[in-house]
TrEMBL record:
CDD domains: FBPase. This is Fructose-1,6-bisphosphatase class 1. Residues 199-332 form the Fructose-1-6-bisphosphatase class 1 C-terminal domain. Signal peptide: none annotated. Belongs to the FBPase class 1 family. Pathway: Carbohydrate biosynthesis. Keywords: Carbohydrate metabolism, Cytoplasm, Hydrolase, Magnesium, Metal-binding.
């Protein structure tokens, strides 16, 4: 069996080859990876761990928090506070940023995360995941504030997710391609199982919540309708549909075999650009998808070019196989006469 490459060795070799991973960033990634292992253990216990069901609280999004949402958030906060690699953290589950307490040294990075994405799937034993995004602290003059986080996704230093599914898999980019690490439960180590992941430019598989069709705007309706017409229609091929309702699981499938994922604007909430969050869902996934040769737009512009106005900003998302996302974007930019 070829020698197994651990996460640590991968990061050391990326640093050697690209001079791309300063020690603080390497520590950050290893700490987050270790926190994901702890979360995986809690998730895998399910009913045996008394961690299923809802907590008696809501998050800033107005969503009922699951017990595991809160547990996962606390695991990530506690794992990252003391290391000296971070200045502050932001989470889907917290109204405002969490600045590293004065008793610990402050570092160069900002960490954002959705500690447990897809949590509506927890109680029904369907894959869920942790999504994280890493930014650099750009203003060294003063204390950290929310404004320091409001950077476009193209400024991310690293991004990734951990999917808690049949396998527990960590997927990571530091800007030199996408690598996948599978958790070896016997040794507790992350083992490199895919490197330089590439998304096929074409696909026959789309992921969207079809029950929202009546709420979509015309370009999205046109794109999906053409897919549904199959080989007799303008696309000249039949399409398949998947919707896990867990972004991590849908994106992992797309990174693995191609596809297009969409959560578009819809008229139920016309003032909201979309359901998904820019900073800790769309941006990290967009970084990964682009690093794997795909595209990620909000229907009109590259997601990673969007300058955020607020921490919990939402965005419409179309990401995945390059030629399909380009088509969706073209339909938005040059609608039928
Ligand atoms: P719906 C999970 O709540 C999430 O944020 C994403 O992981 C997922 O893609 C989407 O929402 C599912 O939304 O409306 O289909 O339940």
């Amino acid at each position: 069996m070829s020698s197994r490459i651990s996460l640590t060795r991968y990061l050391v070799e990326q640093q050697r080859e690209h001079g791309h991973i300063p020690a603080q960033l390497r520590l950050l990634i290893e700490v987050v990876a270790r926190a994901c292992k702890s979360i995986a253990i809690s998730v895998n216990k399910g009913a045996l761990g008394e961690v299923l069901g809802s907590a008696a609280s809501e998050n800033v999004q107005g969503e009922i928090q699951k017990k595991l949402d809160i547990i996962s958030n606390e695991v990530l906060i506690e794992a990252n506070e003391w290391g000296g690699h971070l200045a502050a953290m932001a989470s889907e589950e917290m109204d405002s940023i969490h600045v590293v307490p004065n008793r610990y040294p402050q570092g160069e990075y900002l960490l954002l995360f959705d500690p447990l994405d897809g949590s509506s799937n927890i109680d029904v034993n369907v894959s869920i995941g942790t999504i994280f995004s890493v930014l650099r602290k750009v203003n060294n003059q003063r204390g950290i504030s929310e404004e320091d986080f409001l950077q476009p996704g193209k400024q991310q230093a690293a991004a990734g997710y951990c999917v808690y599914g049949p396998q527990t898999t960590l997927v990571l980019t530091v800007g030199t391609g996408v690598a996948m690490f599978t958790l070896d439960r016997e040794t507790g180590s992350w083992v490199l199982t895919e490197d330089q992941v590439q998304i096929p430019e074409d696909t026959k598989e789309f992921a969207i919540n079809m029950s929202n069709m009546r709420h979509w705007d015309a370009p999205v309706k046109r794109y999906i309708d053409e897919c549904l017409q199959g080989k007799e229609g303008p696309r000249g091929k039949d399409f398949n549909m998947r919707w896990v309702a867990s972004m991590v699981a849908d994106v992992h499938r797309i990174l693995t075999r191609g596809g297009v994922f969409m959560y578009p604007w819809d008229k139920r909430d016309p003032d909201k650009p979309g359901k998904l969050r820019l900073m800790y869902e769309a941006n990290p996934m967009a970084f990964l998808v682009e690093q794997a040769g795909g595209l990620a737009t909000n229907g009109r512009q590259r997601i990673m070019d969007i300058v955020p106005g607020k921490l919990h900003e939402r965005v419409a998302v179309a990401l995945g196989s390059k030629n399909e996302v380009q088509r969706v974007t073209d339909y938005h930019l040059s609608p039928l006469a």
